[in-house]
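Researcher: I'm comparing several assemblies side by side, and this is the next one on my list. It has 732 residues spread over four chains. Same procedure as the others: predict the full complex and return the structure.
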Amino acid sequence: MGRKRTKSGKIRLAEVAELAGVSPITASRFFRNPEALSVAKRTRVESAAKELGYVPNLAARALASQRTEVIGVLIPSLTNNVFSDVLRGIYDASEGSRYSIQLSNTRYSILQEERLLRLFLAQKPAGLIVTGIDQTTESRAMLEAADCPIVQIMEIGPNPVDMMIGFSHYDAARAAIAHLFDQGHRKIGFVGARMDPRVQRRLDGYQSAMKDAGLFEQRLVVTTATPTSVTLGGALFTDLLAREPDIDAVFCANDDLALGVLFECRRREIAVPEQIAIVGFNDLEFMASAVPTLTSVRTNRYEMGKTAATMLIEAIDGRRPEQPVLDLGFKVIERQSSSSRRSDNGPAVSGAAAANKMIALPSSRD
Amino acid sequence: MGRKRTKSGKIRLAEVAELAGVSPITASRFFRNPEALSVAKRTRVESAAKELGYVPNLAARALASQRTEVIGVLIPSLTNNVFSDVLRGIYDASEGSRYSIQLSNTRYSILQEERLLRLFLAQKPAGLIVTGIDQTTESRAMLEAADCPIVQIMEIGPNPVDMMIGFSHYDAARAAIAHLFDQGHRKIGFVGARMDPRVQRRLDGYQSAMKDAGLFEQRLVVTTATPTSVTLGGALFTDLLAREPDIDAVFCANDDLALGVLFECRRREIAVPEQIAIVGFNDLEFMASAVPTLTSVRTNRYEMGKTAATMLIEAIDGRRPEQPVLDLGFKVIERQSSSSRRSDNGPAVSGAAAANKMIALPSSRD
DNA sequence: AGGAACGTTGACAGCGCTACCAGCAACGAC
DNA sequence: GTCGTTGCTGGTAGCGCTGTCAACGTTCCT
């Protein structure tokens, strides 16, 4: 076969075009916008490409078209289960599309985020997914100046850069506390670790609910900047008990902490929920099979990632969503650990997936 | 400023060269191999680049140089904690290097893996990290023909494609069973989910250890292809109990299953370890704080990812490791759930990080 | 019948960078 | 003094693809 090849031995578009008997540019169009070709040429190019095993050279395409087909994703952690669910959604949505994901880890540092953002933007990504709404002023300016669609994920708030998908951590925490009030609890502790902005907002929600009920005391709050873990949950709970031995419930900023609290209760032979109720956050899988089963606030992490990437890709392709801000809501999943009735599948308290959400206090439950 | 700019408004290498008063090619060299320049020109180019805020165009570089600075990573799951640890190691090691990570999820399908491999290879990655040693014949051929360094991770075996880092799941399972024998257990069940090749090898290890002791029975093994979860652990254990009510220990193929078994024991009021001992696999963080604390086989996942990426980058840069196959070993962390002495921090059984490893049976413990 | 409108195709000219090779000066060996 | 050698620099020629625009044939309208 005297077909001329590139040094690297790879098939080029020109060879496909030659075999199909069309010009290179027509072959090029086939890969970008097949509808623009007549059916005859379309099938010819298609079979030529298949026969030769043609794979487009992305670098050449990016150079010629002045844009890449890369979606940049900035998340604060790779360890956290929460983000692996979100990521899975993002990857699932990107699969089958022509976009590839470029992931970077900010390690919960907004300065690091700013640095990575600058790096990403320099490569002209097709779109960007960033975590949260607490960027530096500089980052914010770069995002606003970026000429690609952007989705902020994990939470919602005012002034989206572009699109936004998440839920209100504040409202979710309030709903969790409302549920505990509803079950007759009054002296409710808060246990939190890492204290990133979203955890902070959960704390704010807890605090406001407690204040509304005239029950807030600073001593009920135990937090640390240390990364979260099950073991840490036990340790923080131990601190809490030392300060306030007579608490009747604990709201944990995440499920790992809740599991740690549960184990610590077992270690201390504290009956759950009879002596102390436990509520977690995120509703990881194990919450439903712990003994007792653990109440948690369910968040739609996979869906969040998947929808974010889908929205982004649609926007890149020019189909902007009619709703740029999506509230995915949450749901308080009541289980044994907080049920005074000791029933397994109690009613659920939902966060309305709507714009104006002042959920929570007992009366507004469904 | 009459400097000519690209349409996109971005600074090009030519502008940097002009400002520095050198030719573009000299400026180019500055970014790839600064030592080749005279000190005078080096500093001139450096300050010009900084002044203009120059960022190289990766697409153009890739096109011109016929290679990319992308490391492809193929892993079977994004959900599994095990892989998020490995990934974190990979990302940590790649940070600061000039290589970026391109991640793809094979979803435990070797056909999918083959497809993704073809896609990756077409883009001429600088290096590749693939999971496991069970590729399709086709994949294997592609890997061997690839002209970039490759690291296989998660396990070790004969005939590495190139480099390899992991440990023997077979030996690790044997060591876990040896530990249970050592504690006086005889009727040991096996609980496994998903049954990917590595879980299969753990089962093989279990089976061989049991056979060696003349204790193997097929009824002791409960497995499913379903993805793993804590809840599933409870369900599989329930099945196992139905078949063999008088087992005295359970070896779980991973820690989630072990936690599920623990919860199920609690639900059925089976005393752990008095009635049934539990051993998990991976030693996730929560194992140490469960009640009772759970014995597990510790594996160095983060280190595995980090070392894999480091070795790969070194190899790309031409410094091949003297040891292409690295056995990271494992360690049986004995905790309350399998300790007849009910002691918390019992002795640990280590897997030698050596080539020839026939660990395990009670006598060879340290 | 003439012309506009549309759908389809191709020629040309780069995108920004680097591989390759040539050129030049400075230096040492014989 | 001549020749090679080394160290640095620059010119040329693409890498493989796509944006732009012009040109073509066909259809439809007036």
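Model: For your comparison table: Residues 197-212 of chain A form the longest helix (16 residues).
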